[in-house]
Amino acid sequence: MFRILAAIVLGGLTIVHGARAQEFPSRNITLMMPYAAGGPGDALARILGLGMSRALGRTVLIENVAGAAGTIGSLKVAQSPPDGHMLLVMHLGHAANVALYRNLRYDAVSDFEPIGMIAESPMAFVGKRSFAAATFPELIAYVKARPGKVAYASFSPGTRAHFAGVILGRRAGLDMPHVGYKGSPPALLDVLGGQVPLMFDSLITSTPHVKAGRLRAYAVAAEARSEFVPEVPTFKELGYPELTLTGGIGLFARRQLAPGVAARIRVEFLAALQASEVRERLAALYFDPATPATRSQLEMELRADYERVGALVRSLGAAAQ
Fold first, then answer.
1. 145: left (phi over 0), alpha (psi -120 to 50) or beta
2. Of the candidates 55, 220, 274, 309, which lies 20 to 30 Å from 237 by C-alpha distance?
3. Distances (CA, A) of 274 to 42, 123, 150, 266
4. What whole-number distance in Å separates Cα of residue 89 and Cα of residue 264?
């Protein structure tokens, strides 16, 4: 009954039809994670893979292909056969890559079909606990007094984490060099080791270090304070409403997927997310569950994010190096 209702909600289909749908899945499924292993997206992909493997009766493999703000792995999915056996776990902000990379070999909107949102995670501005500034106002004053001397890290160039630093720098009059990494884990290692003092990072990967006293969180880039670190103010509270950049992470398929196959994946995807073990693992890793949405709502959100983030990229005159 649940899967029938899920099919109605996610596309109006209650019957998986056609030869392709009957044959799917005919082999193991690959979830492409276009960032380094160990990051928040990777953890999410592995949790989702566990649930979908049980739902589909096939092994779900995780493939990490890091680099170029997720474009290398995304291209591999865009060029894969449209049969549903290779799927992409990616945040909605990957639409901004269309503006960032002038010679991108795929279109983040027209080449991908959103299956569903998995979870949401706000970013936090964090620094090593021993960093000179104990509060956000102290941090602003400290960086402003040292133009070009205090850098910040992000988990990849061209991501929201990168642009959050650019926005903060322009808004507060700061000169903060950016250091991009291939994923959150290596960036966090350098922040914890003191090689880079500050970082915009997902709360998912930063919260354990904050709670353990290794990192200090100065602000979160969300509409409201996070239940995981309720003592940390939002940028909006601190007078920076532009820095409300919570991003959803979703599951995408290659466009031109057979309707029956797409419907089957959506139904099993939603069923996997409702499994108690999956929900418990998401909560344990500080993920906020995403609000359920229909396919048309996801399409609208993807295009809106494309316009919003793409406009930001263009306004900053940013381009991939």
1. alpha
2. 309
3. 19, 25, 44, 12
4. 17
Using CA atoms, how far apart are residues 204 and 208, in angstroms rounded to an integer? 8
pLDDT score of 311 more than 80: no
What pLDDT is stored for residue 96 in this prediction? 65
Residue 285's pLDDT band (cuts 50, 70, 90)? confident
So what's the pLDDT on residue 85?
A: 97
Question: Higher model confidence: residue 68 or residue 210?
Answer: 210
pTM: 0.76
Q: Using CA atoms, how far apart are residues 18 and 148, in angstroms rounded to an integer?
A: 60
CB of 174 closer than 8 Å to CB of 203:
no
Cβ distance 183 to 38 under 8 Å? Answer: yes
Q: How many residues appear in the chain? A: 321
Q: Which of 53-57, 85-89, 94-98 has the lowest mean pLDDT?
A: 94-98
- What is the CATH number that goes with domain 2-121+247-315? 3.40.190.150
**Residue ranges matching CATH 3.40.190.10 in the chain:** 123-221
Reply yes or no: is the peptide bond before residue 292 cis, omega within 30 of 0: no
Q: Where does CATH 3.40.190.150 sit in the chain?
A: 2-121+247-315
In angstroms, what CA-CA distances link 268 with 3, 46, 86? 8, 16, 15
Q: Which residues of 298-311 are buried (b: 16+ CB within 10 A; e: fewer)?
A: beebbeebbeebbe
CATH code for residues 123-221: 3.40.190.10
> CA-CA distance, 19 to 5, in Å (whole number)?
23
CA distances in angstroms from 22 to 3, 58, 83, 113, listed in the order given = 16, 14, 12, 20
What is the distance between the alpha carbons of residues 159 and 167, in angstroms, rounded to a whole number? 12
What are the start-end ranges of the E strands in the chain? 29-33, 60-64, 86-91, 112-121, 123-128, 152-154, 178-180, 198-202, 215-221, 247-254, 288-289
